[in-house]
Amino acid sequence: MVTPFTDEGLLDLEGAQRLAEHLVAEGCEGLVLSGTTGESPTTTDDEKSALVRAVADAVGGRAAIVAGVGTADTRHTAELARAAEKAGADGLLVVTPYYSRPPQDAVEEHFRTVADSCGLPIALYDIPGRTGTRIEPETMLRLAEHPRIVAVKDCAYDLLGTQKVLARTDLAYYAGCDEYVLALYALGGAGCVSTVANAVPRRFRSMLDAFDAGDTAGAARIQRELTGLIEAMMASGLPGAVTVKAVLTARGLPSGPVRAPLRPAGREAADGLLAVYGELVARDAGG
């Protein structure tokens, strides 16, 4: 979920509650707060806790609230984990420490330390394209032995490595790359942590429901139909937070501006994105 801000750039907690209500009503079973799309690098620790409390007040009990707490600092991450637990989160999303590029034994120790710091279940966030460091499959296998490390948000673009871990652990794998949602689900994944679903949550819900009902052809059709919007939102050279907020603003849903160093989409980029979005919505309306 994006983090809504006011026009002045302040945290918009009422808007966050309205957006959370909308996403849950449209089929989202859980909401990840303060993730990449939630602009976590530019929100304060207090803002992160306030966001969890507000969204938990709005939809807690109807959707799982997962708080992104990952930083480049093990001690800070553990502090954020405890704060999220106190604020009412149901689980944590913990990204690999970034920039310092720790070796695998240090990566493993980082996650174990965070998991030991609180009582919440943890999803590991494997996104080497952003962090510079992979959680290698062998490291995943060892981490899966920890009782509170239960899931993975998979943005590693290594389907073979993912299958190796799926075959040997009970970790719940969530596709973090929208073009891989159905492929990973078909292999036994648990679902997705999606950026594009901010814009079309019902579409992703319908795709997974179709697959569960045995309509694999229908599920594949939905994934293919999403291709244009996924490309426009995730492969246009603009960050997902920027493209999502452009769509939500056009729909009159809470979003507000992005925080620097991000900048809003330019007119040409926004018009092209909204044209693709409009075509998909029109196709849905046409049956």
Automatic annotation (TrEMBL):
Family in the record: Belongs to the DapA family.
Subunit: Homotetramer; dimer of dimers.
PANTHER family documented for this protein: 4-HYDROXY-2-OXOGLUTARATE ALDOLASE, MITOCHONDRIAL, DIHYDRODIPICOLINATE SYNTHASE
Any single GO CC term annotated in Swiss-Prot or TrEMBL for this entry: cytosol
GO MF annotations, alphabetized: 4-hydroxy-tetrahydrodipicolinate synthase activity
Enzymatic reactions: L-aspartate 4-semialdehyde + pyruvate = (2S,4S)-4-hydroxy-2,3,4,5-tetrahydrodipicolinate + H2O + H(+)
Function field: Catalyzes the condensation of (S)-aspartate-beta-semialdehyde [(S)-ASA] and pyruvate to 4-hydroxy-tetrahydrodipicolinate (HTPA).
GO BP: diaminopimelate biosynthetic process; lysine biosynthetic process via diaminopimelate
Keywords: Amino-acid biosynthesis, Cytoplasm, Diaminopimelate biosynthesis, Lyase, Lysine biosynthesis, Schiff base
Stated name of the protein: 4-hydroxy-tetrahydrodipicolinate synthase
Superkingdom, natural source: Bacteria
Pathways per UniProt: Amino-acid biosynthesis; L-lysine biosynthesis via DAP pathway; (S)-tetrahydrodipicolinate from L-aspartate: step 3/4
Active-site residue list: 125 (proton donor/acceptor), 153 (schiff-base intermediate with substrate)
Positions bearing the site annotation: Part of a proton relay during catalysis: 36, 99
Known EC number: 4.3.3.7
Subcellular location: Cytoplasm
The protein's enzyme class: lyase
Residues that bind pyruvate: 37, 193
